[in-house]
Amino acid sequence: MLRSKAIEAIYPELEDKLVITIMGACAQELYDLGHKENFFYLQHAMGLASSIGLGVALNLPHKKVVVLDGDGSVLMNLGTLTTLARYRPNNLTHIIFDNGSLLSTGGFTSHTTSGITDLAAIAKGAGVPNVAKATTPMEFIEAVADAFEGNELSVIVAKVEAVGPDHFGMDFKLPENAFRFERYIREYVTG
Fold first, then answer.
1. Which secondary structure element, helix H or strand E, spans residue 9, and what is its range?
2. Which of 90, 31, 34, 33 is closest to 65 using CA atoms?
3. Residues in Cβ contact with 57 at an 8 Å cutoff, skipping those fewer than 6 apart
4. Residue 39, C-beta contacts closer than 8 angstroms, at least 6 positions apart
5. Inter-residue contact 81 to 155 (CB < 8 Å)
6. Which of 77, 109, 88, 73 is nearest to 155 (CA)?
7. pLDDT recorded at residue 45
8. 120: helix, coil or strand?
9. Pairing between β-strand 101-102 and β-strand 108-109 as defined by DSSP bridges
């Protein structure tokens, strides 16, 4: 399964949700589908998309929040899974695209490549109430639909190929994106 196709499949469902992505390929592939003001691309902060998503979810409990993350990023901040489980925001869906690679930072293999480290098992062991593993596009779409329709913290680990975009580049940098994301929340969410 390609991450870009998985993101494309759920893109229409992200219209009414607050979306936080990790840096690199994931952010670029979402951006290439068409930027929306409810998207925040957390550039230069590997490992922290889930932490930002948790903060947003806790402060806006009436709004669905989606984090698009990567295996390398989650491995850098494994404690985030226990923190998510501790606070259990029922409006947060954390999607981890596991390509077994630190693709955006040089393409080195991650600990999930060998099959020893299982992020879904770690999330379940941390106490996340709804954990799904997806290896096919249909499994992914079903897991996302269940999470979006549900009312509990969800983690979805989607196994994807280690293939990234053919380019990197956005029309704006992190400070502008942060300002626009905050303004969107202020005007349309908390308004």
1. helix 3-10
2. 90
3. 63, 65, 89, 91, 92
4. 14, 19, 21, 30, 31, 181
5. yes
6. 88
7. 79
8. helix
9. antiparallel
Give the ranges where 11-164 is alpha helix by DSSP (H): 25-33, 49-59, 71-76, 79-87, 119-126, 137-149
Q: How far apart are CA 103 and CA 10, in angstroms?
A: 22
CATH number of the domain encompassing residue 126: 3.40.50.970
Q: What is the pLDDT of residues 51-108, one digit of tens each?
A: 999 999 999 999 999 999 999 889 889 999 999 999 999 999 999 999 877 656 555 5
Alpha-carbon torsion (99, 102, 106, 107), positive or negative: negative
Owning domain of residue 58: 3-189
Assess contact for 20 and 57: CB atoms under 8 A: no
Number of domains in the chain: 1
One-letter amino acid at 168 equals F
Q: Is 42 helix (H, G, I), strand (E, B) or coil?
A: coil
pLDDT single digits (tens) 131-165: 999 999 999 999 999 999 999 999 999 999 888 77
Q: CB–CB of 108/130 below 8 Å? A: no
pLDDT band (50, 70, 90) for residue 8: very high
Q: Tokens standing for 48? A: 């922290």
For residues 186 and 72, what is the distance between their CA atoms, to the nearest angstrom? 32
